[in-house]
Amino acid sequence: MTSLRILVPIKRVIDYAVKPRVNATKTAVVTSGVKMSMNPFDELSIEESVRLRERNKGAVQDILAFSAGPTKAADTLRTAMAMGADRALLVELDENRPKERDLEPLTVAKLLREVVHKEGCNMVICGKQSIDDDSGQTGQMLAGLLGWGQATQAAKVEVQGDEVVVTKEVDGGEEVVRVKLPAVVTTDLRLNEPRYATLPGIMKAKKKPMEKKKLADFNVDFKKRLETLEVVEPPPRQGGGKVDSVDGLISRLKELGAI
Amino acid sequence: MATSALRTAIPRGLRRPSLLLRPGLLSAQNTSRRHFSDVNPTPIFHLTETEEMLKESVGRFARDVVLPKAREMDENEMMDKSIVEQLFEQGLMGVEVEEAYGGSGMGFGAVVVAIEELARIDPSVSVLVDVHNTLVNTAFRTYGSTLLKKKYLPKLATGTVGSFCLSEPASGSDAFALQTKAVKSESGGSYKITGQKMWITNAAESEIFIVFANIAPERGYKGITAFVVEKGMPGFNIAKKEKKLGIKASSTCVLTFDDVEVPADNLLGKEGEGYKYAISLLNEGRIGIAAQMTGLALGAWENAVKYECNSKSRKPELKLRPRAHYSSMPSERRKPARASQVAQKVSGSAIEWMGGMGFVREGLAEKYWRDSKIGAIYEGTSNIQLQTIAKLLQKEYKEQ
Q1: Where is the Acyl-CoA dehydrogenase/oxidase C-terminal domain (chain B) (predicted)?
Q2: Which terminus of chain A has fewer CB atoms gathered within 10 Å of its CB, N or C?
């Protein structure tokens, strides 16, 4: 079996349990003073890389957790290492500089391409999307830039020789795809149940290396191609009504002019 | 750390440096200072990066794994085995135990954070972790011979629960009047323990017991000695399991010792020094109890406020009240006697905010309240603590 050097990109996002609020100028979601955590899909990715290592003795040479984000993203990377990643790379972004704020998927994919080349990775396991922007593009763009195969929305990942067999959930059943390494795999919700960082894991993570870089260290064009016009909250849900019977439903629908 | 506990127990106006700095008021005189955390002292609300991660991880564990079972364990008066196993897997049963012995190698601050996080969801699970870490593991780590440490710490950190056995039917707050006796064999190779212990936390799950027995009753408390007893030693029985008001899932048992032969290697520390160890361990253990009670208060509040804010029969005038309580809470951290009072008050009020839903056994509100009662009782009752504080004040201020 091909020896694996896995790259897992990670994003620090608003915690999934927090109800996001739009700022006064309607340009973004408020993030200051809000609980931040690892993007849940990235947790799945870290967990899957660690499980690949546990399932295939000696096959996984390296698990590198990567993040481009504010200084605090170091905490998120530390969590990834507590879960089992071997080392971390943080590209620290200066939030005060507009061009370093909210990197676009293409920019992130280009950053990742450089990391892959420099670190000699042959597999990228990343979340199918981040729960803040929901772009769902980075993995695919990265595969395109690298000229690698890709298997998206994985519900099951198996490495066989120099191939990755990925099962994905599609309408009405499962679809199994086979992709040659090197490859990009994006992870979906039911892939696994991420572990909690154990106490010994947390202690070990303190000793694992974390490299810090700046955007300027990368030969990447980060011109903004997207413009956010407006961010609005979804309209408040209108309360529903209850009807007693089918007849009641029909007459109510008629009343509303729906039929 | 001990002085900070004392400081918090004394009314603000009475704090005086001379009192605070006097050695040995709350800790045994020969206890060396220990680091509370892995970094230099920081304000009590400031957690280190490690403690933050631990808090996050333990909090999630508590919500995802413990919460779904909390009500059932309480009704069954039984700790779920799989939860105990997972506590070990998470490294929560050897927080301070050195990595070489299979522990997590963290500081006391980490224990406190873990206890608090667990108590927010289930004080029963919290006390299991508390007693095991702050009393049993610490006893081995501080007083155990290298042999004992090598033999027991890896077990205690990775799979075997331990108990701390001091109280007896006739000696609770007056623990040093204990009547369990240990007689040394003529060869000196072993001791025979005879007597009875009561109120032993975790006893139903435990396999390792630290037992205090007197080897020389004529010398009074100076004969008290600590031994390590294993489940299965002939003559040792875990007898009755108490039926309790609160923390029902945590086992509390009566233990009987009928000529239990313990090898001399299982002597913990030195002969006749058991009383010192007990005082010192309980002084530290009480901080854990304070953390448990603080967590309980937070949990009861969160439970009630979640209900209040989402209840259909919303009563606007209630909205402000929880906040008032919440703001009073953080300042109560780690004050053993006070923490239990706050826990009782908050969890009691929480029931009232929730009305009928607080009174029924469907949610957890009534359980928090029942669980809070124990805080004023175990590891030194609040009444005794007040008495101790009064004694210290008398010593300081009474003119000869």
Answers
A1: 338-391
A2: C
Burial grade of A245 (CB within 10 A; 0-12, 13-18, 19 or more) = exposed
End-of-domain residue from the set B276, B304, B319: B276
Shared domain for B106 and B206, answered yes or no, is: no
> Is B379 labeled as catalytic in the residue annotation?
yes
pTM exceeds 0.80 for this model:
yes
| DSSP three-state, residue B72 | helix
B324: containing domain? 284-397
Q: What is the residue-averaged pLDDT of chain B? A: 84
Distance from CA of A131 to the nearest CA of B (A): 19
The CATH number that applies at residue B177 is 2.40.110.10
Residues B168 and B45 in one domain: no
- Mutate which: A72, A196, A208, A210, vs B, most B CBs within 10 A: A196
CA–CA separation, A49 and A66 (whole Å): 13
Write the residue in A37, A79, A199 that is nearest to B104 by C-beta. Answer: A199
Q: How many helices (H) and strands (E) does chain B have?
A: 15, 8
Q: How many domains does chain B have?
A: 3
CA B354/CA B331 separation, integer angstroms:
25
> What residues in A contact B89, CB-CB < 8 Å?
198
The angle formed by the CA atoms of residues A242, A248 and A253, to the nearest 5 degrees, is: 85
Report residue B251: phi and psi, to 5°. Answer: -80, 145
pLDDT of residue B42: 62
The per-residue DSSP string of B27-40 comes to: S-TTPPP--SSSSS
B289-to-A177, B295, B340 alpha-carbon distances in Å: 54, 10, 8
Instruction: Give all domains of chain A, ordered by start, each with its CATH number.
Output: 4-255 (3.40.50.620)
CA distances in angstroms from A43 to A53, B91, B99, listed in the order given: 16, 20, 26
- Collect all residues with Cβ–Cβ distance below 8 Å to B128 and sequence separation of at least 6: B79, B84, B87, B161, B201, B202, B205, B250
Long-range contact set of residues A234-240: C-beta below 8 Å, sequence gap at least 24: none
Q: Which of B117, B308, B332, B379 is catalytic?
A: B379
User: In this structure, what token pair is assigned to residue B254?
Assistant: 């009566």
B250-299 pLDDT, tens digit each? 999 999 999 999 999 999 999 999 999 999 999 888 899 999 999 999 99
Q: A225, A47, A42, A228: which is closest to A129 by C-alpha?
A: A42
pLDDT at B30 over 60: no
- Give yes or no: residues B31 and B118 share one domain: yes
User: Final residue of a domain: which of B136, B161, B186?
Assistant: B161
Helix axes B336-354, B365-372, angle to 10 degrees: 150
